[in-house]
Design a protein that fits this description.
This protein is α+β, with helices and mostly antiparallel strands. The protein folds into two domains: 1-66; 72-215, 2-Layer Sandwich (60s Ribosomal Protein L30, Chain: A), CATH 3.30.1330.60. It has six helices and six strands, in the order H-H-E-E-E-H-H-E-H-E-H-E. It has helices at 2-63, 68-71, 102-105, 115-131, 158-176, 201-207, and strands spanning 74-75, 88-92, 95-101, 137-142, 184-188, 209-215. Strand 4, helix 5 and strand 5 (184-188) form a beta-alpha-beta unit. The radius of gyration is 35 Å and the shape is elongated. It starts with a helix and ends with a strand.
Length: 219
């Protein structure tokens, strides 16, 4: 009788221990599930917030007329159309851009305008004075990545050369045209804003340029 009682005691203890282990395991699993659920809720809230922000931005863009198609340059059919054989004319979202190839406007390594360049700028200044009086005009100089070794005593780097070319265009439009000095400014970008990548002669020629952007009036 004592032996049988002892056996049942051992069996009962084993069941109790097993039950205790199962309960602890269940509690741990439940804790992990709650943590995982909390993370999912937080992530869902973040995604909903991002979605609302994107929808709001899209709505503002549509109201303001800002679309991806209008952000891209488009061929111009406006006042500068007759100049498109000598320069590139593009309509942008915020204005009109005139792209002047350096081979037409400047000799290699120089910032003095060629006679052909002056002729074209005379026409540009007439159109700006007639069609865009009061608009802000930005003139950018761009070079390729060739170092300025031969003219280093004048232009230590392409920063100086690109800025000098932009300044030549600005000065000519002010002094020989009817463009207000209060509405125009130069900027030089050296070779850090290339149109095309690569070091071929055609790529470098493409990247050497001056760009005149006539910004739309906002008020």
């Amino acid at each position: 009788m004592i032996q049988r009682t002892f056996v049942w005691f051992v069996v009962g203890a084993w069941i109790a221990v097993g039950s205790g282990c199962s309960l602890q395991s269940l509690k741990e699993s439940n804790r992990r599930l709650r943590e995982h659920n909390d993370r999912l809720i937080a992530e869902n809230n973040r995604l909903e917030s991002d979605l609302q922000r994107v929808q709001q931005e899209l709505g503002e863009a549509q109201v303001g007329g800002r679309t991806s198609e209008e952000d891209a340059p488009r061929p111009s059919d406006g006042a500068f159309a007759d100049l498109e054989g000598d320069i590139e004319v593009q309509r942008l979202r915020d204005g009109v851009r005139l792209r002047l190839p350096d081979r037409v406007f400047f000799s290699p390594g120089k910032a003095a305008l060629t006679s052909k360049g002056r002729q074209i700028l005379n026409r540009v200044s007439e159109i700006v004075a007639r069609e865009y009086r009061g608009n802000t005009v930005r003139v950018e100089g761009h070079t390729d990545d060739t170092p300025t070794r031969k003219v280093k005593h004048i232009y230590p780097t392409n920063w100086e050369l690109s800025t000098a070319r932009a300044c030549s265009v600005v000065r000519y439009l002010i002094e020989n045209g009817d463009v207000s000095a209060q509405n125009i400014y130069p900027a030089g970008f050296a070779f850090y804003r290339p149109l095309v990548e690569g070091r071929s002669s055609s790529a470098r020629q493409r990247n050497r340029r001056v760009e005149i952007t006539i910004l739309d009036r906002t008020s």
